[in-house]
């Protein structure tokens, strides 16, 4: 492992001692509040051997332990990581791309990318002797933290809110966490802040305003997504698109590519595309702001996993440093695109995970993304997570008692129609 040497502010560069009880930089306050990043001793960083990790017979995040703040033997693991990177030729043809890949994080143990954060955060919390791990979550983070807390033998508290996705709420409860559904979701953060102050809980999520992002210790787990993408492609993609809320994964993946550059393996980072539900990053980018303000939120947004109306400085910084883009994606066409991805690529993805494809399509249409660019889209979670939101317009499948030949003929006609439709969609002509 590499021991955290200090916390370094992303905005002002101030360095202070590692203290997980303080969520951000003590110097940057108010609208200019900033998250901090784990800083390692230079000797540790010089000793990182990516080639040894890439060639290791071990699989999952465990092989990257030297680059993480957790001892390999102390890593609380459910075999997260090493998720598939699919070449998506048919979807690429639909989007007008020759080289599209999907990094499928739904293949993690709790079916979301949050497992990478939880594995590191819970391991660190256990080593600290934290009595409880907790999070404020609309679903994925809560389910993930509950699973890893159970694995570690630690109590877990998940503060969620009225209207949270039914399947996610059920998953959290099945994994043994104490679930709180709050009428006023803004009360979740003060609740967790008091628990940190009075009882020494380890909180994995944001719990202060303005928003800073999740624990910087846990964000280190997202670096491994960059490592795996580079390992499999043998190069840095031109673009990496992902759904963004507070920017934890965006910041962590960006740091992963910076690590690869520092090791002399990569000469650049990909340009990031932040697909967001409400547009706070797009607004900050458009106005050249040095901070991210909250924007009006659409209460009917289907992408609950990225439903916050305000992102963070860490996300804005990653976009600016990589000459990236932020694209607001609403509900229109989202469910249809989700079902198209399922029909032509065999991947059932959460609605938020479909947003990167919509963002890439828009940037392809305006010429920002070129046909020959190598594009990776990060699918963050399984479509089973929000079935109660993605099937609202479905009608019950009728139960048939018709003769067999009639049923077969109807099924054959449906198959022919579906094949014709998909053939047209993947003809290589961008919509």
Question: TL;DR of this structure?
Answer:
With 431 residues, this protein is α/β, with parallel strands linked by helices. Helices cover 39% and strands 14% of the residues. The protein is globular.
Assign a percent range to the helix content: 25-40%
Oligomer: single chain
**N-to-C SSE series?**
EEEHHEHEHEHEHEHEHHEHEHHEHHEHH
Q: Given the structure, what is the number of helices? A: 16
Total strand segments? 13
**End-to-end C-alpha gap:** 48 Å
Structural class: alpha/beta
* Main beta sheet: 6 strands, mixed
The overall average pLDDT, rounded, is 94
Give the C-alpha Rg.
22 Å
> Within the largest sheet, what's the order of strands?
4-5-13-10-11-12
Shape: globular
Strand proportion:
5-15%
* Low-confidence segments: none
Describe this structure in words.
The chain has 431 residues and is of the alpha/beta class. Helix content is 39%, strand content 14%. The protein contains 16 helices and 13 strands. The strands form three sheets. Strands 4-5-13-10-11-12 form a six-stranded mixed sheet, with helices on both faces. A four-stranded parallel sheet has the order 8-7-6-9, with helices on both faces. Helix 10 (248-262) crosses helix 12 (313-321). The chain is globular, with a radius of gyration of 22 Å.
State the main characteristics:
431 residues; alpha/beta; four-stranded parallel sheet; 16 helices
Strand and helix layout:
Elements: E1 4-9, E2 15-16, E3 36-40, H1 42-46, H2 50-55, E4 85-87, H3 89-95, E5 99-104, H4 114-128, E6 133-136, H5 140-152, E7 156-161, H6 166-174, E8 178-182, H7 188-199, E9 202-203, H8 216-219, H9 223-233, E10 239-243, H10 248-262, E11 271-276, H11 280-286, H12 313-321, E12 325-328, H13 334-345, H14 351-365, E13 374-379, H15 387-390, H16 404-425
Parallel strand pairs: 5-13, 6-7, 6-9, 7-8, 10-11, 10-13, 11-12
Antiparallel strand pairs: 1-2, 1-3, 4-5
